[in-house]
Amino acid sequence: METEGIQLATCWFEPDSDNPLDALLFELANQFVRLSLKTAPHAGGFAIFVDHELFERVGGFDERLRLAEDHDFVKRAARHAPLRLLESTQIRMSVRRLEKDGRFSYSAKCLQVELYRLFKGEVTEDIVDYQFGYAPSDQGNGTDEGLKRLIERMAVWRRDYAAMLKRVARDVKQAPEVQDTMAELRRNFDTLKEAVRAYLSR
Q: Is the pTM here over 0.85, yes or no?
């Protein structure tokens, strides 16, 4: 980071489990972080790399917040230095929180928090039941055809995204075509998110 002058960064993260639903949820989270780099920077507290001077400049984490203080910090820090994605770095993350709250329940809580931040601002009160400590309650590792289809759709989306990046690198002069392709990828990703949301709410 120091060599390239990067002050604020995040990286890929993957689940410490073999559950295919975990892989899908983490993949969605990773792609959300990638797509929001320029518009609404997000990074989980477990994957924030920040220069000390920048950390002090923005006042660190806001301890008044009840939830999402990591996203709030990144949003404020990104006003002074762009959030970069370290493509070569990957963190393996425990799924104990998913097992404690339940995968579907936890995903719904994350969505509720994001909607609250979007429409009301940072979370200064308890809007969801989020308790610390771990007591596994959801150990299911089974899969079904609906989940398999979602995983396949995510794989297709990733291939399309990689192909788009190669086209950009090959010919950056064709800006309108690149913008149209990017817009289509965002629409496809939004459709995929809705499919996952429908799956989780069954």
A: no
